Amino acid sequence: MSEFNPGEFMVEPTIENFNSLRKDNLVTLAKHLGLEVRSTFRKREVYDLIKEHFVKEKTFEQSVFMEQSINTVENTQISEDSEISEKDRQWQREHEKVLWEREREKREWERERIEKEREFRLREQELELRKLELEVQAKGQNLRVNSGQKFDVTKHVRMVPPFQEREVDQYFLHFEKIATNCEWPKDSWTMLLQSVLVGKAREIFSQLSVELSANYDT
C-alpha cells in the first residue's frame, strides 16, 4: 500500500475517501491542514476536528456529513438488528431444542407407561388362566374320585325286596322307588334284580344277551 499523501488528497477530496482514512492518515492530514492534534486524541476526535475545518472552509457541506451520519446510524441499526435477529434465532433454536427434548421425554415416559400397563394386564391374564387351570384340575380330581368309587352291589343287595312272581308290575314299581330313594346307579339295577329273581323270571333273564341284561329299561 502506497504512503498516504495529504497534498494529493486535498487536490480532489471526496467524503468517501475521507471516511476511509485510518487514524494515522487523519493525523497526517490534520497536520497538513495546520490543525493542532494532540497525541491523546482518538480517531473520532481527529476526524471531527478535520470535519469542522472542512465545513468552515466549505470543502464539504455540513449536509454531507449529516447524511453520512444518518447512513452510519442506519447501518449501525441494521447491524444491531442483525445481531438481535441472530440472537433471536439462536434463542429460538435453543428453545425448540428444549421443547423437542421435553417432547421426547414425554413420549418415552408414555411408552414406558403403556409397556408397564401391558405387562400388568398380561400378568393378570396369566394369573387368571392359572386360577382356571387349578379349578379345572380340582374338578377333574373330584370327578376321578367320584368315578373311582364303584357301586358295591353286595352292600345293597340285602335291601332289594323279595321278588313277587304274581305281582310283577307292582314289584317293579316298588323296586324302582327303593332304588331311587337309595340313589342306586341305574346301571346297577339289573345286577341287584337278578340276585332276587326266581322261577320263570330268572329263566327269561338268563336268556338275555350281556348287553340287554345290563339295560334295566330293556
Question: What's a quick, concise take on this entry?
Answer:
The chain has 218 residues and is an all-alpha fold. Helices cover 73% and strands 0% of the residues. It is built from ten helices and no strands.
Describe the structure.
This protein has about 220 residues and is mostly helical. It has three domains: about 5-60; about 80-130; about 155-215, no CATH class. The chain has helices at about 5-10, 15-20, 25-30, 45-55, 60-150, 155, 170-180, 190-195, 200-205, 210-215. Helix 3 packs parallel to helix 4 (about 45-55). The longest helix is centred in the middle third of the chain and has 87 residues, at about 60-150. It starts with 5 loop residues before the first helix and ends in a 5-residue tail after the last helix.
Which terms summarize this structure?
single chain, 218 residues, mainly alpha, 10 helices, rod-shaped
What does the average pLDDT come to? 77
Strand content: under 5%
Run of helices and strands: HHHHHHHHHH
Termini distance?
137 Å
Number of helices: 10
Cα-atom radius of gyration: 62 Å
* Low-confidence parts: 73-81, 140-147
**Count of individual beta strands:** 0
List the helices and strands and how they pair.
Blueprint: H1 6-11, H2 15-19, H3 23-32, H4 43-56, H5 62-148, H6 153-156, H7 168-181, H8 189-194, H9 199-207, H10 210-213
Helix pairs in contact: 3-4
